[in-house]
Hints:
Elements: E1 25-29, E2 35-37, H1 40-46, E3 50-53, E4 59-64, H2 65-76, H3 83-95, E5 97-99, E6 106-108, H4 111-117, E7 122-127, E8 132-136, H5 137-147
Antiparallel strand pairs: 1-7, 2-6, 3-4, 3-5, 4-8, 7-8
Amino acid sequence: xxxxxxxxxxxxxxxxxxxxxxxxxxxxxxxxxxxxxxxxxxxxxxxxxxxxxxxxxxxxxxxxxxxxxxxxxxxxxxxxxxxxxxxxxxxxxxxxxxxxxxxxxxxxxxxxxxxxxxxxxxxxxxxxxxxxxxxxxxxxxxxxxxxxxxxxxxxxxxxx
Length: 160
């Protein structure tokens, strides 16, 4: 993972020896231009630049650059003859954007992506280990209610 601490930092291009571990839940508001302040704890792990794509209509997914390239390679390996899968590949790549936080740590969430996921003003950003997810506040609340206290039970089939 390439860890950039800041544009003027002597350590800006230092390679991190630890694996990315995006965790936590953060509430934020978009400004009038549709910009979101990336939580500082996640900003370091996501790096600069990072990528945002719409993988579902529920939320946006943010990938550190290295994880994005791994994901993109897997998508690129899908045969052109797999028509339904290629439809999904097109949708993912066409929705993706490269993000470079400004000096205040903000990134623009494109209007088309905000519309697809119902993001208006209030957002919840969650860490999901190798990626982060950006949810409309209401959709995250609904998801939490649906998941309820039984979320761990669904992991038992995986030995967790």
